[in-house]
Design brief:
This protein is mainly alpha-helical. Helix content is 79%, strand content 0%. It is built from 3 helices and no strands. Helix 2 runs antiparallel to helix 3.
């Protein structure tokens, strides 16, 4: 008896609420655009770091000098790879 009354009351309340229509929060389009710009900036900085590291390796080899700063060059290349991966992951998350 009590369960039937609770069930009927619940059905009445749910019928009055209905299905709300989804609505984007204010300024959502601007935030999404800003995150896309940030993603592109990260991708470009990662590619630049990888290119810089490779160019630095080549420059030091062609000039006959020993690798004076292998840690710096390896760090630039590793950082570029991480940044490029992060940019690609962000593109997948956003769904661009």
């Amino acid at each position: 008896m009590i369960l039937a009354a609770v069930h009927d009351t619940y059905g009445i309340v749910v019928a009055q609420v209905g299905n709300p229509t989804p609505e984007a929060p204010p300024m959502a389009d601007k935030v999404l655009q800003l995150s896309r710009y940030f993603t592109w900036m990260i991708l470009l900085s990662g590619i630049t770091a990888i290119t810089y590291g490779g160019g630095r390796f080549a420059w030091e080899k062609w000039n006959g000098g020993g690798l004076q700063s292998p840690k710096m060059i390896a760090s630039a290349m590793a950082g570029g790879a991480v940044a490029t991966s992060a940019g690609t992951i962000m593109n997948a998350v956003i769904g661009a």
